[in-house]
Amino acid sequence: MNDVATQGVHKGLVGVVADVTAVSKVMPETNSLTYRGYPVQDLADQCRFEEVAYLLLEGELPTRRQLNAFRKAEAAERGISRALIRVLEEFPRKAHPMDAIRTAVSFMGMEDPEGRDTSVEATRRKALRLYAKIPTAIAAIARLRKGLRPIRPKPELGFAENIFHMFFGKVPEPAIVKAFDASMTLYAEHSFNASTFTARTVTSTQADIHAAVTAAIAALKGPLHGGANEAVMHMLKQVGTPARARGWIDDKLEHRALVMGFGHRVYRSGDSRVPTMAKYRDEVARLRGGEKWLEISRILAEEMLARKGIHPNLDFPAGPTYYMMGFEIDFFTPLFVASRITGWSAHVLEQMQDNRLIRPLSHYVGAAERKVVPLRARG
Ligand SMILES: CC(=O)SCCNC(=O)CCNC(=O)[C@H](O)C(C)(C)COP(=O)(O)OP(=O)(O)OC[C@H]1O[C@@H](n2cnc3c(N)ncnc32)[C@H](O)[C@@H]1OP(=O)(O)O
Ligand SMILES: O=C([O-])CC(=O)C(=O)O
Question: What pathway or pathways are given for this protein in its record (predicted)?
Fold first, then answer.
């Protein structure tokens, strides 16, 4: 095998700057992140997710009047069609909800009144419909697979409250809603991560936003990306008790296994979003009696840093937070979708407005050129 590095190959596109963006800035040197110039921690603490969604889609934080109009428009689009519900009813009960929401978004594209219109104006309207309808579809998937009827969205509820209402039929206390809302803000956007880059690649072919988002959901599912928030909770449950945590990690590191929720391609000394998410996780643990998960998490993080020099990423505190809120583990990555749809849409719009087909090169290392032997002579 040739030495690929000497051939100009950037495996995994490590270190490659593929385009410019004005959506967000990831700064590993200071462990910080801004959305359109605003520090993500400040957005999570001081704004509602609806304001952040508006910021990502429109480029500026909304005035009160703009926010009211945006909320109204979103609330009016929350409903999903009977046809989509019938499709969801047919899905196998054992289907992973990420596969179900990926297929639901693909179906929404076929139903959308502007499905084939790839103008910027139509794409902006479709982005709003996706942002409004995705939570409704995810909650319907959660209910239907238990044999329960979906709960209709309530237009008078905020984005976060409405998700709890559609999943559980009730809205928890404000501190839990705030923690969830902050997680939506923290998950919303992160420059050219694998799923966003996938959405931009699909958009670069002039395919429509539903195609781009369907592909982005497929990319987010993997455990090296969004799927890690589910893997983290499975891992914490497998560890089981704080007393077992050090032995568990000894075993993993001895076998050179990945410890989920740790490491990051861009951040090397800590993920900008972790302290804020950990603060809300700790509050949820206090309210829900989940201190055991905090103690296991503390030991795993301490050991990973001391022995491997690797820090946790956002999925590490987010996974147990969703668990303590009562969500089933295989809905954690779909909840990530409900947030990241805003970042994906902002990137789709940005790509459309200054497009060039994304098409890198490859360095060939296969067989040398040879003659085709006809089938009858191949034995
Ligand atoms: C929202 C998000 O998508 S955040 C990311 C969520 N993903 C996870 O939590 C999955 C676990 N983490 C990982 O697999 C990786 O850290 C990734 C995929 C996120 C980043 O991958 P890369 O940039 O290719 O890894 P990187 O080059 O930093 O790895 C360096 C070394 O650290 C090791 N390492 C990195 N992460 C971990 C981990 N979580 N557990 C154990 N070892 C790890 C690698 O195996 C590698 O070891 P080696 O040099 O002996 O081969
Ligand atoms: O940036 C990445 O590679 C992954 C990530 O943290 C995200 O998408 O939020």
Answer: Carbohydrate metabolism; tricarboxylic acid cycle
Domain that holds residue 99: 37-221+330-353
Distance between CA atoms of 220 and 198, rounded to whole angstroms? Answer: 9
Domain identity same for 293 and 338? no
> Could you tell me the distance, in angstroms and rounded to a whole number, from the CA of residue 13 to the centre of ligand 1?
15
The answer to whether residues 232 and 216 belong to one domain is no
Domain membership flag for residue 13: no
Which of 154, 188, 136, 164 minimizes the C-alpha distance to 75?
154
**Do 158 and 50 lie in a common domain?**
yes
Q: Whose CA is nearest to atom 7 of ligand 2?
A: 190
Q: How many angstroms does the Cα of residue 114 sit away from the middle of ligand 2?
A: 30
Please tell me the pTM assigned to this model: 0.97
Is the interface score ipTM higher than 0.85?
A: yes
Q: Are residues 173 and 310 in the same domain?
A: no
Q: Examine the domain organization and report whether 66 and 171 are in the same domain.
A: yes
Q: What tens digit of pLDDT does each residue of 140-157 get? A: 999 999 999 999 999 999
Give how many domains the chain has, as a whole number: 2
Any idea how long the chain is? 379
Let me know whether 77 and 201 are in one domain. Answer: yes
- List, for residues 165-181, the tens digit of each pLDDT value: 999 999 999 999 999 99
* Distance (Å) of CA 292 to CA 34, 129, 240, 242, 313: 33, 40, 9, 7, 20
The total of other beta-carbon atoms located within 10 Å of residue 174's CB is: 10
Mutate to test the pocket of ligand 1, among 264, 277, 332 (most ligand atoms within 8 A of CB): 264
Question: Using an 8 Å Cβ cutoff, are 129 and 109 in contact?
Answer: no
Query: What DSSP letter does each residue of 161-218 carry, written as one string?
Result: HHHHHHHHSS---HHHHHHHHHHHHHHS--SS-HHHHHHHHHHHTT--HHHHHHHHHH
Q: Inter-axis angle of helices 174-187 and 315-325, to 10 degrees? A: 150
Going by CA atoms, what residue is nearest to atom 30 of ligand 1?
Answer: 263
